[in-house]
## 1
Amino acid sequence: MTAGGDRATPAIASAAAASRAAEQLGDRLALGAAPACAIILGSGLGGLADRIEKARRIPFRDVPGFPQATVHGHAGVLIAGELAGRAVLAMAGRFHLYEGHAPRLAGYPVRVLHALGARTLFVSNAAGGINRNFAAGDLMVIADHINLMFRNPLEGMLEPGDIRFPDMSDPYDRALRAKLHEAGKALGVPLRDGVYAGLLGPSYETPAEVRMLERLGADAVGMSTVPETIVARAIGMRVAGVSCITNLACGISTTPLSHDEVLETTTRVARDFENLVIAFVGAL
Ligand code: HPA
């Protein structure tokens, strides 16, 4: 057993590894001011990366401790630069549990972003709409989540600086959610608000599972984000998030679901999504 590791995943994805990664990347990222926000871009939402000014890009393969992103629609680049004149960090791509990654690895990028100075995290994802008032193409401010992955990125040895039993009563910061809604109003981009259910995947849900999620109080369902938010809260970061409702969940929609449909919808709403995030960062 090594310091910072556990039996299942020795020494990977630890807080110490994140600090070392940040030290190694610091010069290449040339971070002047501490980032106002770190942004994780979900499936098909990576276009925001191209709107980052003065961008310095590091492929995931050069980030110590990062595996390659494997999913189509995920670029796998860490970017430092500016949005709305504010310093930001962004990750185009993330690590999903369904790729077989250890839960702590799914949260490791958040530790790296934190070690690089970020204290506010913006998470985004593609999700299926469960709320029957939702339509494909809607953007939903994440009000809360339900962890149905049955794994947790904090499993294993307690990391230095972590809280063993972190409070999750305000996982998606109330004040930041209000800022998102204000930004949406100012831009004329209508926003929904709702609960995100995070499932392991990678198969989409059955109609019976979607009915169950509806009864549990979920408005949208996806396969990411939850591990990142949990790590962020455990290390004291504030979190805001938006789901792009790319499709109606199985059973609510009667047509078969494909990843292509997910990416088509994100392409359609990409501009609104990007403008929203830029306005939000400008208001931080
Ligand atoms: N279910 C789970 N994940 C998703 C979906 C869905 O319907 N759409 C996009 N990501």
Note: The radius of gyration is 18 Å.
## 2
Amino acid sequence: MALIVQKYGGTSVGSVERIAAVAQRVKDWRDRGNDLVVVVSAMSGETDRLIGLAKAIQPRPSPRELDVLLATGEQVTIALLSMALEHIGCPARSYTGGQVHILTDSAHNKARIRDIDGARMRADLEAGRVVVVAGFQGVDEHGNITTLGRGGSDTSAVAVAAALKADECQIYTDVDGVYTTDPRIEPRARKLDRITFEEMLEMASLGSKVLQIRSVEFAGKYKVPLRVLSSFQEGAGTLITFEEESVEQAVISGIAFNRDEAKLTALGVPDQPGVAQKILGPISDANIEVDMIIQNIAADEATTDFTFTVHRNDYARALEILRGTCDGLGARQVTGDDRIVKISLVGVGMRSHAGIAAKMFGALAREGINIRMISTSEIKISVVVDEKYLELGVRALHDAFELDQAR
Ligand code: ADP
Ligand code: ASP
Ligand code: MG
């Protein structure tokens, strides 16, 4: 007998028929003698719909009130799933995040989970009930409803699994596992049976939305066995492993991409100590996260060009701030581009292989794709390219590194 935490995403609970199918799957697992805690997302499209309503009233909705609104999406699903379970003779109880004490900090719209009190869930499990928990939401120390950022139900599930010391956390979604890249972009993408935790963390942080990055961080911290599977077909899915040795190491495991990028450049800023701080200080004071940074040596040696990337949602604000800063610094010009994307190669095997970057750049060059920025680490290489090259770039790299072929 095992304790399993299952999470079903928006598409998997997108209609009453699908909710009924989820209930049947949950019941089957329980009938086989397992204890089940089920974390669910809002029905597909619902979170977007609610955000649309809020923005129709206030262009920048109050973060606190937005959380009150968004949390309703998941509340609908927990109730419907519990009803569907009861309907087929499976005792169940639904709970909002607050009711099972998913305690978070107070950063509305992107709250972090601090603690979960498992007592209530354990009592239900002992009484033979399936526990159904609303994903994506929690409550802060003052009792305010919070949400965990888009895709946050993954994190709720892993955090609940960690709190209850579950035997496995299963993320059911609309693909049957983690692929070498998003199968919607490259139909030849190959499903991975296993991926190391480190690679999954990198893929998620570089834009693979199959798992929210915080869920992977949580799984790593608490060593939660994590699996991604399909709610529409049977199969073992993809296991996120913690032992690197057990995995046959491909040089490249996958390709991630991120469409949410924008870049800003200050041209002709004085090449003096402290300038980088002067440019980025006001950006970070505005709570805008900076990702890649490049500083060039200008030809005249007295000035330099400074480029950095931010989330596309922060682009307009960042541009305004940078213009203000650069007026004071006497920079020649400020430019920006929010039609860029970041494409990244990820693989722990890269550590022991030279020439990966050259091969990557060669493959992009053959397609006539100009690279605007580059950044590397031990297990990844990222490039920024024009948005229009996203599909072409991903497919060219998938092909060049033969990711469609089994390891
Ligand atoms: P859910 O609503 O179940 O949380 P998401 O849409 O958040 O589902 O995540 C699943 C989607 O992630 C897939 O439909 C797929 O398009 C996308 N995706 C991106 N990168 C990958 C990848 N490497 N492997 C599998 N799916 C990926
Ligand atoms: N419903 C939320 C969203 O759409 C959380 C989730 O689905 O994980 O982002
Ligand atoms: Mg998701």
Note: The chain has a mean pLDDT of 94.
## 3
Amino acid sequence: MKTRVIQVDPQQPSASALADAADVLSRRGLVAFATETVYGLGALATDPAAVDRIYHAKGRPPFNPLIVHVEGITQARQFTAVWPKAADRLAGTFWPGPLTLVLNRSSLIPDIVTGGRETVALRVPLPPVARGLIERVGQPLAAPSANRSNRLSPTRAEHVLSDLDGRIDLILDSGPTSFGLESTVLDLTGSPLRILRPGPIGPEEIAQCLGGLDQVASTREDVAGPPGELPASPGMLNVHYAPRTPALRVDAIEDLAKISWPEKPALLVLGPAALPDLPDALHLVELPEPEAAGQRLYSILHECDALYLDVIIIVMPPDQPEWRTIRDRLVRAARPVAG
Ligand code: AMP
Ligand code: MG
């Protein structure tokens, strides 16, 4: 299969590009497009054969469910069995935006989308390209991150192409994504509500929006589920967001003293830090500020992979709320340095 790439204006995508992409989708094709978080790999969510192609292209295990991108609350309600008050408040406040809500699904959602679960993950993306595409197709789009399974999420069209060239039909290239980290996933089917994946919308904002309507918990420990059962949220499994280059993390800049540097190392310093003496041949990136760090993180890790470096040493950012999502991804991307 030949993968086509079409350049589109991120703010005002041309009607012909959207019509072209919608046509590919309605023929059960796969189209990668930018959301505000990362690039998604879209297919018609209501068509099991189209969704099956996503799993094939990504090499994604069938138990790992997909996020369904909808036009708005009205469409979301058609695909859920129950629409609780909390969903109404949260969707009203944060949609369109990087908050994914897990709700009980209606019979319109095929099994293959949810990996057999009775729940479905829904969100409304913000960028005009993503929204225009969903409107044009007139159907929700199942769209996981547009990367091979267990690889880094793509934040640029080039990342999608290097991972999925020849495996998907079309990429709409609208430039780099704005947040650069995956959406917050919030499970509304139980009590307390549970954050299954930390992301751009934090627990404080969610709690504030709910104003005491429901309790919110950020559970990490039990999302993998008991042995032998379906994981509650595979996105929370370890080694989910890892680069190909071996990556090691240290908690503080002083811990760099423990490193025996190979020939071609990268050093990624997150958070404010005064650097000690370091080897000359070092691919050094400093990201002192959380917002820019989130936007650039995956791109930098992709770059390290492309340069075939020997190792990526990561100095972790401080354990503070504004660094929460980045810390979550880094714990999965890198092993702690021994000693
Ligand atoms: P991706 O779009 O590749 O970032 O992956 C989507 C992630 O959303 C999955 O790995 C899960 O963690 C989460 N997810 C999707 N559907 C559900 C669901 N029904 N229940 C729980 N988590 C879900
Ligand atoms: Mg993913």
Note: Confidence is low (pLDDT under 50) at residues 221-227.
